[in-house]
Amino acid sequence: MRYGTVDVLNGIDLTAQRGEVIALLGPNGAGKTTTIEILEGFRLPSAGSVRVLGVDPAHGDERWRAQIGVVLQSWRDHGRWRVRDLLSHLGDYYAPYATDQIQRPWPVDDLLAAVGLTAHASARVSRLSGGQRRRLDVAVGIVGRPELLFLDEPTVGLDPAARREFHELVHRLADLDHTTILLTTHDLAEAEKLADLIVILANGRIIARGSPDQLSRRLTTDAEIRWTCDGQRHVHATMDATGFLRDLLRDHGDEVQELEVRRANLEDAYLALVHEEETGIRTGWAERVWQEQEETR
Amino acid sequence: MNPKTTALRVGLQRGVIELRSTFTNGQDLWNYFFPTAVLLVAVFFMRGATVPGTDFSLGARTLPSALGMGLLFGGLLGLAQNLVVDREDGTLLRAKAIPNGMLGYLVGKLVLVSSVAMIGLAIQLTPGVFFLDGLRLGDPSAWFTLAWVVPLGLVATLPLGAMIGSLIENPRNMGLIVLPVMGLIGVSGIFYPITGLPDWLQGTAQVFPLYWLGLGMRSALLPADLAAVEIGESWRHLEMVAVLGAWAVLGLVLAPVLLRRMARRESGSRVAARREQAMQRVG
Fold first, then answer.
1. Least confident window among A259-268, B10-19, B220-229
2. What per-residue string of b and e applies to B192-230 under the rule 16 or more CB within 10 Å gives b?
3. pLDDT above 50 for A2
4. CA–CA distance, B251 with B156 (Å, rounded to integer)
5. What ipTM was estimated for this complex?
6. Which of A139, B11, B48, B103 could form a disulfide with B108 if both were Cys (CB 3.0 to 4.6 A apart)?
7. Nearest CA of chain A to the CA of B261: how many Å?
8. Are the Cβ atoms of B89 and A94 closer than 8 angstroms?
9. What confidence score (pLDDT) does residue B117 get?
10. How many helices (H) and strands (E) would you count in chain B?
């Protein structure tokens, strides 16, 4: 994908399994939205091959479109519509695409209950709070019971309670309805909580990927050791904390005081990784992660 | 049921829902009734003056002409305005994310805009009947003429509105269209017959639909002998159908191309960029 002469996405290689939740994680400007818009068919890549539900999104027809849900970041569209009217209207478009397995659209009352908007069913959209509006966006995205759902920064502007409810809804869609979900976020904790697979994007390329467990094991190998010796502070970062400590204590013994070993948490690692990728300053993180990835393949 | 048929039906419902909400919205009602009131007051004070060369009320001649202008405003500006606003706020992107949503959206918009134009016509004409002499509303042939002039006028102006709406991205640039339209009103014989204008201006006015919309509405609502003060001393229905038909064909050929181009380019990040821009305007 290219804007003018600047490549904004490079070598994004991504495959999703049915019912899987994938989080595209990365800082602003990493290429998350661009990637998701290419997959939604809203934007054309300058090169490469893309297949979504077996179809090139650039040439996806209406039947393809009916199998896909897109949760948009709304602003003030349909402000005068009532919540129930809007959902039942938008759902009507999906009726011809119902199959033996999948009933389309999602009955409005069930859908309202699923996203927690039952109490606001007859409210005008413009009267909804930010969080309620976001739930409506999700409801619109899933009204056609999509097999594949795209969520671009779904929890921006949600308070913690609404965020938790949203997470439960995502789990429900993935577990009960086997919906494949691709979401973008810049919140690592959210990605950890929701995703089966986390893909970290920075500067338009994938810098790491794996399950939350794999990533945290792969990324948090570094440890920081602090101690004082003869009244002087020392700090040392190493991958082999145990070995370093063995040597340290053998060589200096009792002179070592105030010993502290701290393992980097996933967030530190993620931030270091992204920082390195964005600034080009090599501290070793990204290279090592790449190497490990090559080995594990 | 066939998905396209479904989209047409759902689009029709969409138009009805939006029509209901526009006629229960205070701001919108004001926008419909205030210009009507201004027009009726103006026509009221013109009712004593006469059309040059006749003893027919100038007010009674102006009202039908203004109804023709209303078709242009409603069809062309109304649709363009709707498209520009809906693109900015993301309504259009939502339609794009839904199977056949664009088709339904467009049908809904056409229903909404043409209904608003026709209802506007009725609320302007009805009060006028009570204080203007000479409008031949009792004559079935008047209604027959209205029955083809109004749809033809909408078919000629709606696609133009769709084209303009597809080309303008920033709502603030709607002014680029409103100004030329104002100029066109001045030379199209809406408020005064254009037979007194220089030939080249008369010629220019007759290229555009507005003159013919006014003429068409006059031909429907005014007595037959008023044709004598028109260009060519006739209502020139054949020429009217030819010019409005040509605009309709041009619009119907180009509008789908431009609408598709506009729809193709919509994406979440474009809407987000416009939102950013609009926020800066406000803040």
1. A259-268
2. bbbeebeeeebeebbebbbbbbbbbbbbbbbeeebbebb
3. no
4. 7
5. 0.89
6. B11
7. 12
8. no
9. 95
10. 12, 0
